[in-house]
Amino acid sequence: xxxxxxxxxxxxxxxxxxxxxxxxxxxxxxxxxxxxxxxxxxxxxxxxxxxxxxxxxxxxxxxxxxxxxxxxxxxxxxxxxxxxxxxxxxxxxxxxxxxxxxxxxxxxxxxxxxxxxxxxxxxxxxxxxxxxxxxxxxxxxxxxxxxxxxxxxxxxxxxxxxxxxxxxxxxxxxxxxxxxxxxxxxxxxxxxxxxxxxxxxxxxxxxxxxxxxxxxxxxxxxxxxxxxxxxxxxxxxxxxxxxxxxxxxxxxxxxxxxxxxxxxxxxx
Length: 268
Description:
By secondary structure, the chain is of the alpha/beta class. The chain contains seven helices and seven strands; from the N terminus they run H-E-E-H-E-E-H-E-H-E-H-E-H-H. The N and C termini lie far apart (63 Å).
């Protein structure tokens, strides 16, 4: 199978991009050396903290990547697949019930170089309206205001494309994407469910949506993704790794965090 659309294309109105071969009759190709390195780095992901409110999030200068998506878009499964860990991200048996923000560290334990933020899934019908509105407000505030937010990975079910709720979520971060302040990578999940023609059509429709927000300053990408068939996993890992802090930045942040801990009053 030929390589699909790279994760750093910049969709433009009427732009033509390479059509992927699609997952139909896909064969597993060995990962390249850069992919192996990126996947090894992604495997270092480990739990940092959980928060019910934005003011409970840890302050950090590390680049932060937020994972967002509808409750049934396969967000937790995608995170676990990229990290090659079965239970890194919690997938509730009842979609939409997990309503905490979970943070993960990446890179060396002594000097982490990136944070992954798993935001609650949205749009599940069984969740009370009041809870939906509360988390809509939380996610809007996070995407609009989180200072060290570097990129957003938006999970979209490839079979259904951007729904109205997906577009609403995207609107929260669009101003920061257009200015180039925040990068955007869209994963068209569950691509193994599509044949070649359907995959190309799903990609085209998603590109049309992204073309509406892309600018010369923006970094907008799209990848066909399947956790089951491991489609696009290496591409995503490489994109994420590109956004990590430099060793010097990671070391400086580790020293700053250590100093902050030592400055806290003793319990004694």
